[in-house]
Amino acid sequence: MDLVTVADVRTPSTRDELVFAPGERPLGGGTWLYSEAQPGLTGLVDLTSLGWSPCGETADGLTVGATCTIAELTGLAPRPGWSALPLVRQCAESLLASFKIWNVATVGGNVALGLPAGAMTSLMATLDATAVVWTTDGGERRTAVAEFVTGVRESALAPGEVLRALEVPAASLESRTAFRRIALSPLGRSGTLVTGRLAASGEFVVTVTAGTVRPVQLRFDEVPGARALSDAMSRVDEWYDDPHGAPDWRRATSGGFAEEIRRELGGSW
Fold it and tell me: What is the rounded CA–CA span in Å between residue 185 and residue 204?
C-alpha cells in the first residue's frame, strides 16, 4: 500500500540523528507499515541505514540486531551445543507471511509491533531474550522480551525510544525445546502457539503466545507433574478473543499442548 501521507524518509547514520519529529515513525522492513493505512504518519526514519550487525555470537550467547531480517536469523549456522536453534525456523514458519517476506521483515519490528501472533516474540520470549532499548537521553535499558510486549499492539517502548537489539543467553540456546501451534486454517494466523524449554539446570518453562494478549510464561524448577502444570495453566486468564479463535478454544488447546510438551521434554536429558 502506498503511504500517501508520508512526505519524508530520513536515513540516519549515527545515533545522534535518531530523533523523531511529530508524525514520524521508525522503519525497519516496513512489512506491516505498508500493509494498511497509517493515519497521522508523515515521515519515516529508516533504521536500516544505521548498519547494525544482524547477528553476533558473544561469550554470553547471541545478540540479534533489531534490523536483522527473519531470513538472516533462520540462516544462522548451527553451533555445537545450541540445541534450541531449530526453534528459530519453527517460529518463522508460523508467521502469517510468505517466505519471501523473510528477506525484508525484521526481527525487532515483529517484536516491537506487539501483535499477539508475533512469531519472533514467541521465539525470543521462549529463549528468555532481553530487549535492549535505546532511550531518548542517549542511554539504554534492558527488559525481558516476555515483559516487553504488554498487550495487543502495546509494548514497553516509550515515545522516541527504539528497540536496538535482542540478547539471547547461551543457557537458553543450549536448552531442549518443543513447539506446538494451531490455526483455524492451514495457512492462517496462529490461534495459539505453545513452546517449552528444558534447561540443563533442570528448569522447565512453558511459554504461551498468539492465544494470549501478551506472552505468558510458566516457570518450574524441574519438569512438573501433569496436575501441577494443569493447575498453572488453569490460572492463565489473558486469553485473546478475535476471529482467529475463541478464548475457550485457545485455553483448551493450549492446555493440551502444554501437557504434550511436558511429556516430550520430560524424558532423560
Answer: 30
Helix boundaries (H) for the chain: 70-74, 86-92, 107-113, 119-126, 145-148, 170-173, 226-234, 247-265
What b/e string do you get for 10-26 counting C-beta neighbours within 10 Å, with b at 16 or more?
beeeeeeebebeeebeb
CB 67 within 8 A of CB 106: yes
160 Ramachandran zone, left/alpha/beta (phi>0; psi -120 to 50): left
Three-state SS for 232? helix
- Bridge partners of 169? 61
d(CA 163, CA 80): 29
What are residue 155's DSSP bridge partners? 149
- Amino acid letter, 154: E
Cβ–Cβ under 8 Å, residues 201 and 213: no
CA distance 206 to 25: 34
**Ramachandran area for residue 217 (φ above 0: left; ψ -120 to 50: alpha; else beta):** beta
Angle between helices 247-265 and 226-234 (to 10 degrees): 150
- Under a CB-based contact definition with an 8 Å cutoff, are residues 107 and 120 in contact? yes
Q: Over the stretch 79-131, which tens digit does the pLDDT of each residue have?
A: 999 999 999 999 999 987 777 889 999 999 999 999 998 999 999 999 999 99
Q: What is the pLDDT of residue 193?
A: 98
Cβ–Cβ under 8 Å, residues 66 and 109:
yes
For 26, 115, 147, the CA distances from 23, given in Å and listed in that order, are 10, 21, 27
d(CA 227, CA 128): 25
